[in-house]
Design a protein that fits this description.
Helices cover about 65% and strands about 10% of the residues. The protein has about 190 residues and is mostly helical. It folds into two domains: about 35 residues, no CATH class; about 130 residues, no CATH class. Strand 1 and strand 2 form a beta hairpin. The protein is elongated, with a radius of gyration of 26 Å. The two termini are about 25 Å apart.
Length: about 190
């Protein structure tokens, strides 16, 4: 078995020994040097390509789909409030239709921005999506408990729990930092 250097200076001192060895195994060092065969040396300080598994690729597109659904729900709330504005005013609803339009627009804008950042793999997207998700969960529970009608809270409790669970799954399980560190995506075999 070949000696694996632990630093660049040790790598330089051992380079001649490694080059003259007949061992054709690939040796990985802590300074990211890759030695293959007898005299082929490549130093990679920062990989330009990160191989991702197909499972990670599927999770990326599933989170993209769910972010699009959240954005669509916000925009539909906004659009439907504007479409039925006078009807909602005649019903004298609580909360007022202005609240429904503003909250729907904010959800639509927030998750549309998160979707665009996710698709373009902006570096701070995971943190943005998590903050957005936490804000949505806090808002939905405040909306159901204190702003909405007490009887409506009990009727909408299963839906509120489902929305909370989906939002937590997007925030914690589906959006990972690995997706945003790569420059070029290649499919690797599932590991």
């Amino acid at each position: 078995m070949s000696h694996v250097p632990s630093s660049i200076s040790e790598f330089k001192s051992d380079r001649k020994h490694i080059l003259h060895s007949t061992n054709s195994q690939m040796v990985h060092t802590s300074c990211n040097a890759i030695i293959t065969h007898k005299d082929q040396i490549q130093l990679k300080h920062m990989p330009k390509t990160i191989l991702i598994s197909r499972k990670t690729h599927r999770i990326y597109w599933l989170s993209t789909f769910l972010l699009a659904i959240y954005a669509l729900i916000g925009w539909l709330r906004f659009q439907q409030t504007l479409s039925y504005w006078y009807y909602l005013l005649e019903l004298d609803l609580w909360p007022h239709p202005v609240y429904l339009a503003i909250s729907g627009g904010l959800i639509g804008i927030g998750y549309s921005l998160a979707l665009v950042c996710h698709l373009f793999r902006v570096r701070y997207t995971p943190q943005f999506i998590r903050v957005l998700g936490i804000a949505l969960i806090i808002w939905i529970w405040i909306d159901r408990i204190w702003i909405g009608i007490r009887e409506g809270f009990i009727d909408l409790l299963p839906v509120t729990i489902l929305i909370t669970a989906c939002t937590i799954s997007i925030d914690i399980l589906l959006v990972s930092k690995l997706d945003y560190k790569q420059v070029k995506v290649e499919n690797a075999a599932e590991s």
